[in-house]
Amino acid sequence: MADQLTWSGTLARWDRRLFDAVAQRHWPGADRVLPRLGRAANHGVLWGGAAAAIAVFGSNGARKAAVRGVASLALASATINTVGKWSVRRPRPLLEGVPLTRQLATQPQTTSFPSGHSASAFAFATGVALASPGLGAVLAPVAASVAFSRVYTGVHYPSDVLAGASLGVVAGLVVRRLARDAQEARVVPGDERPAAGAPALPDGAGLTVVVNSASGTASAAGLDAVRARLPEAEVIECEASELTATLAKAASRAAVLGICGGDGTINAAATAALRAGVPLAVFPGGTLNHFAMDLGLTGAQATCEAVAQGHAVRVGVGRFSPGPGGEPGYFLNNFSIGAYPELLGHRLRWAPRIGGGPAALLAAWRVLRAQRPVRLRLAGRPRSVWLLFAGNGTYHGTGPTPRRRDNLGEGLLDLRLVYGGGRPGPRLLAAAFTGPLSRSPVHVATRLRSLRIG
């Protein structure tokens, strides 16, 4: 165990004087309010209740602010519990000067610096305030009261509270920055998309567009653009169960195979186009359209113009083989094993409300207690991993759930690994703050041409 830190000097004396002054002063009504308020904030219960109330009774903007507050709290709490408390092992204050009516029935067993309650309180209030100043003004005095209650009940020095509150504010600012980064435009510069040859189809003759009827209204809007700009194009609508067979037939007779749907539908079309040796025209028709956005396509109209003029770009395609004798499969976006699908599912659900960065933090927070490591062999070596992500091309964005690509033609796999062993929580959270091409004791990110998994 690390030695406990002895605090001395002028600042420590002032810290103790302030602590003693609070203990000796009578605060009317505080004995009934502050200890209860501090207990209500244990484990973030007070802030979780506040977030739930805002989500139920607030506007869309208020709900977004509440979830950003929760994301800020999660970040501050994770930092305090994994780094702060165990880096600076300051003992708790002595209680001889604190009235018994104020003291907690159960004293905290962790070290004193910094104050986790203060960090959580100010993180939640800051996260909310940066998205909704009105709600922030309501929460600020509550957060300050929770922080003060920690000195009032004798479990923290004033400097513990100040440090915790400062960390909470920083957590709120970090979450806001992550949200802003996720909302930046994702259109890829044209010079990073290598050109490829394709026939020009001015009126659409020779283009066969397959539409997954389960894709919904986004696909319907894309079809309207195709019919208006490329009237001679053949359009085939099919059920999801018929998609693979329909794509194979369409690719066998088309000069250009078109696909209108989301990322999963586009991935199936890429396989059919590769096997038939024809170009693929992508008409965005899904919810998120990651592949289309990485190509710089913001709608079906842009694809219509490219088909009419014969403009095409070359992209790399990921290929996986299930084993000797197995038929290879292809992927345009990524391949994953372990916790990644659940992380992605949570992030996609929350991203429209709070932005991609905070959603990624919440996703890690949700799955870190439920997952088990996967045993496998990487390049012939046995490994235990919580998560393996192999992206088709280099993704930008930190951690194990990256978000966008600039160059789809480089022919590299972007590999992210979170190793097994120990508790998954600290490992996933640590990986969430690791750069895209860096290493840490729990996380590896690198680029390679191929990878053997057994």
Q: Uncertain runs with pLDDT below 50, 5 residues or more?
A: 1-6, 184-191, 433-439
CATH topology of the largest domain: Vanadium-containing Chloroperoxidase, domain 2
- CATH architect. name of the largest domain: Orthogonal Bundle
**How many angstroms does the end-to-end distance come to?**
40 Å
Average pLDDT works out at 79
Choose one word for the global shape. elongated
Give the count of structural domains. 3
Structure summary, number of beta strands: 15
> What is the radius of gyration computed over CA atoms, rounded to a whole number of angstroms?
27 Å
Supply the number of helical segments.
Answer: 15
CATH class of the largest domain: Mainly Alpha
Strand content: 15-25%
Sketch the topology as an H/E string, one letter per element: HHHHHHHEEHEHEHEHHEEEEHHEEEEEHE
Helix content: 40-55%
> How many strands, what sense, and barrel or not for the largest sheet?
5 strands, antiparallel
Counting helices, strands and paired strands, the structural category is alpha+beta
Keywords: Cell membrane, Hydrolase, Membrane, Transmembrane, Transmembrane helix
Subcellular location: Cell membrane
Membrane topology: Multi-pass membrane protein
Protein name: Phosphoesterase
